[in-house]
Amino acid sequence: KHEMSMVFQRFGLFPHKTVMQNIAYGLEIQGMELNERNKIAMVQIESVGLQGFENQYPSQLSGGMQQRVGLARALATNPGILLMDEAFSALDPLIRSDMQKQLLELQSELKKTIFFITHDLDESLKLGDHIGILNHGRLVQVGTPEDIIMNPADDYVKAFVKDVNRAKVLRARTVMVKPDRFNGSEVKLADTYKVDGDTYIEEFLPRVLRERSTIVVVDKKGDTMGYITEKELAISLSKTSHNESKKSF
After folding, report:
1. Domain segments of the chain: what residues?
2. How far is 80 from 147, CA to CA, in rounded Å?
3. Cα dist. 174→152, 209, 241 in Å?
4. Which of 51, 53, 60, 244, by CA, is between 20 and 30 Å from 199?
5. CA pair distance 72, 19, nearest whole angstrom
6. Who's near 106: CB < 8 A, 6+ residues apart?
7. Which CATH class is domain 172-237?
């Protein structure tokens, strides 16, 4: 009860308790004094943007607000591991997108270990640093979003990811050619365009197609990591695996 907290699909709030009381519940179970647990609960209320609603009851809140309460309650005990079981699947698309964004913002600050269970591939690609794909209870592949998209482990994974918009998932550093393997003899400096290695393809794809630019991929210090041409983009955005695509060129 100290090391792990859970966020439920259907919120799991106590209808007879206020927002403050729901969020502080785990601390109450741990035996924390009232003023101290309310102070911690208030910090979490502010972290999920519910200040002003601390004395409301769940029935007075929207679905998205109720799930924010569930998330704040899970974080209040400062667990090392957060388990989120289809946590956003009961929300409408706009609220779901907002909750995904908020979770990413919180995670950038908190650095928790989060196990997020979902049947939505786009959601897993948006939220996950590493993704595990199950088929009939068997773990068939674990990897980064880029690994899953570029090198599916079997036909099941390949079919699972075939309709993904790769430009939204793949980053410049994933598809670049390293300098020692790049033939830049025909590239003019005026036709190059620098991007950070963590930039998603969708952010520079229009310019490459419009201007036939060569992308120079740089690190945080501005040093060159690699290059991307139309050829690399064609390979990375094709629906075959990365290795199969390279053989076709």
Report:
1. 4-119, 172-237
2. 26
3. 15, 19, 14
4. 244
5. 10
6. 47, 48, 71, 75
7. alpha beta
